[in-house]
Model the fold of this input.
Amino acid sequence: MAGDAQPTEGVAPSALYGTERMNALSDGVFAIVLTLLVLELKLPERDESILALLADDWHVFLAWLISFLAIARFWLVHHTITAGLRQCHSVTLALNFGVLGAVTLVPFSADIIGTERVAEPWSTVLFAVNIGLLSFTIGLLARHAAREPHLRHPDRPVDALSRHQNHHLYLLPAVTVVAALLAFAEPYLAVGALVAEFVVFGWLSARRR
Done:
């Protein structure tokens, strides 16, 4: 049957699974998280003009924008990794759940930025830690896919997986550490460092297409 896992050398056929349910669950979690981010966008119940209320709550919308960009960015990476898999096993599923666990924390850390304002150092630190954790888990998933060719479609090159492995296991976590340290001196600069990484990563990804 199309989509069924095929036996591979050194791996028991009963221990292999198709990737359809894993991908469906992952897409559902990403979609729910994006929805939860929108639910945080509420205007205060004060007798002021809408423009004044929006201006007063700019930090809430900034937190939404940054979080939306982060989730979109990581979904694209996750899609690149899992779309190249024709089958998976228990380690794949465990690593994928690690990614999803970090993803589900984003509405919480984004809400802290919006509630405590970006100028509060610890709110920015927590958000940076969340992004670093998400990056690290997705880097582990990329490394797993790169090291187990029997799980991949034969026509899928390993180059993209290697790039995602190196970028998300080392480079982006390093950026989040720098951002966390910057938060105690200049929180806005810390957030800017994270946004700059998102923009540069997107630009480089577009150039490779």
In short: The CA atoms of residues 96 and 141 lie 7 Å apart. The helical segments are 20-39, 50-56, 58-83, 90-104, 106-116, 121-147, 159-182, 187-208.
